[in-house]
Amino acid sequence: MLLLGLCQLKQVPIVLMHGILEDGRAMTSVSNWLKQEIPDLYVKICDVGIGMEQSIFTSIEDQLAEFVICVNNDPQLKDGFIGLGFSQGGVIVRGYLERYNHIMFPMLRFIGLASPLAGEFCGVQSDCLFILQLPDWLNELINNIEFSDFMFEHFSLTSYWRDPYNLQSYLQNSRYLLDLDNEREFNPQYKQNFMSVDKLVLFGSEHDGVIQPWQSSWFGFWKEGADSVIEPMENRSIYQNDLFGLKTMNEEGRIVLKKTSNRHLKNIHNEQFIKNELAPFVKMEY
């Protein structure tokens, strides 16, 4: 916490990570609006993949590796930074926090912006509205996702797809999200790193239309056996067993849940939201 105190003497820089179907250009407006509100803010946009194709067809592990390089090649981030991930970008930024925060440039605060932090699933009782944007063959692929080496290596969504109807397969075969949740093999370093930030600031919206369920942005998820009943963060086993520090941080008042009225893409295209609701958490006023 001493490092955080020192950093608060000046504005902490921020790293922005874009979502799926995008590249770094998607975060340009967010950067510009934040700098209008915070003139001395240094913003780093990490560009992982090149647009739709690579953000979908590059594994999350490879995208995380690119994000690590992006952050640690910038000396202006060496004393610490705010990590902000939009949509799939939040899953990547969380990976950095848990796996690397003890050995790389330190993240001081985590901001999840409409991010599927607890996973993604839709298509039985819930609607997959986002699939309408994709080619028909890819829609069919998503609706028949399998936990296979090929899928993990070539389709990023597989790494955080959590099927409540086939939970045992998820627990046996999944990798990235299961690893970060400490559900397979408990890694105490992950828990220590996760709790090393001063706060988790998590934005979510019931009008999101892409993140399913939208409560995944707050670490809630579908109850086992259905995609119509929500199990809030506090009721989930990962919270009750404090597998990576959620319970501890919540009890310490270090988790901020912010509900918005934004549709998914409005989170990065709504100037007033960025300036009025997001910027105060970047200034670290709260």
Explained architecture:
The chain is an alpha/beta fold and 286 residues long. The chain has one domain: Rossmann fold. Helices cover 37% and strands 12% of the residues. The protein has helices at 2-7, 28-37, 51-57, 60-72, 88-100, 136-142, 149-154, 167-173, 176-180, 188-194, 237-240, 246-251, 266-269, 271-282; strands at residues 14-17, 43-46, 81-86, 107-113, 200-204, 221-222, 230-231, 255-259. The strands form two sheets. A six-stranded parallel sheet has the order 2-1-3-4-5-8, with helices on both faces. A two-stranded antiparallel ribbon has the order 6-7. Strand 3 (81-86), helix 5 (88-100) and strand 4 form a beta-alpha-beta unit. Helix 2 (28-37) crosses helix 14, helix 4 packs across helix 5 (88-100) and helix 5 crosses helix 10 (188-194). The longest helix has 13 residues, at 60-72. The radius of gyration is 18 Å and the shape is globular. The model has no long low-confidence stretch (mean pLDDT 90). InterPro entries: AB_hydrolase_fold, Palm_thioest. One of its GO terms (cellular component) is lysosome. Its EC number is 3.1.2.22. One of its GO terms (molecular function) is palmitoyl-(protein) hydrolase activity.
Give the helices and strands, then pairings:
Layout lengths: L1 H6 L6 E4 L10 H10 L5 E4 L4 H7 L2 H13 L8 E6 L1 H13 L6 E7 L22 H7 L6 H6 L12 H7 L2 H5 L7 H7 L5 E5 L16 E2 L7 E2 L5 H4 L5 H6 L3 E5 L6 H4 L1 H12 L4
Helix pairs in contact: 2-14, 4-5, 5-10
GO cellular component, one term: lysosome
Protein name: Palmitoyl-protein thioesterase 1
GO molecular function: palmitoyl-(protein) hydrolase activity
